[in-house]
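Example record

The entry below shows one chain as it appears in the dataset: sequence first, then structure tokens.
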Amino acid sequence: MEIKEYSSLYRNNLLDDVIPFWMKNSPDKEFGGYYTCLDTTGKVFDTDKFVWLQCREVWCFAMLYNQVEKKQEWLDFAVQGAEFLKKHGRDDEGNWYFSLTREGKPLIQAYNIFSDCFASMAFAQLAKASGNQEYADIAKTTFFNILSRQDNPKGKYTKAYPGTRPLQSFSLPMILSNLVLEIEHILEPQLVETTISQGIHTVMNVFYQEDSGLLLENVTPEGKFSDSFEGRLVNPGHGLEAMWFIMALAERTGDVKLIRKATDISLNIMDFGWDKKEGGIFYFLDIKGHPPQQLEWDQKLWWVHAEAIVCMLKAYYHTGDERCWAWFEKLHAYTWARFPDQEHGEWFGYLNRKGEVLLPLKGGKWKGCFHVPRSLYQAYKLLDMIDNKKK
């Protein structure tokens, strides 16, 4: 397939299939916000509202408005979600709940800082789209709240016993590496640069393990290896997503060396994470080859493959490393043969190890309107840039 054909496929899937699917099936026209628990055909099977997925959907439509086309229906779609969140999403201290009832009553406490991360991201993107200062203020206040909580993100809701085996998690510094780029238009430049510098250092020096060439999900407070279930855990999808975030940060300053390092790590992750027997990328692995504690370790997930595609395209665009293009074509062939639903639209989220559909849902507690549209957008843009570079 020619590069232009790849680009058209990704763009058309985004604009003619995935986005219409969510616009048709997701809005709650009575109470506001979105339904994310959608079956194969888009029918709602549960009405609980998960705050981070609500935020991600707001971000998605605001981003499309800002980056693709100034469609009023996209802006209106984002605003109605944001207004629901503004009214119901936070506790008295400004922390964002994990989940709400359909009407907006809190179901699960504000234990998960990723609700806050995606709230900040959503309201910043929507502030840019709408010019609404209140949205910008919510984004900024939430971001400062995240920074104040980052050393103890779960606070009183943490399950770990203090002091016995303290570990720091890869997830938050990884998210912050992307979030700071998303909201830099509302932050002081010095804070942006400081956050970027800290993010690059933490991801590339603390969680990256030079001896294996891989990224760990958890390390000791000193950045050392912990020979435990948590310490041995590798999440290939997280690592690949983080590496294209790092490349995006490196683009700002033209840091070729950092882009090369991120590319090399990405290639290591692909080699380690690819299922040599059945194809696709494993969800979780143990760096020592032991059985992971996650029983879903061998499932093949939508977001892992979507983010891997973006990572390989970004790496190829910057380095011209043919291994990245070869991986893109391999990922594309695997992904497009299995995840997109040709009959009812959107993508399936969960496959078993053999690549068969395990859960036929299009959205639920963890899958919403985010990874698929973001990756399709990133992919077609990168493909166009690669095509132009070759001319």
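Notes for this example: The CA atoms of residues 92 and 110 lie 11 Å apart. The first strand starts at residue 37 and ends at 38.
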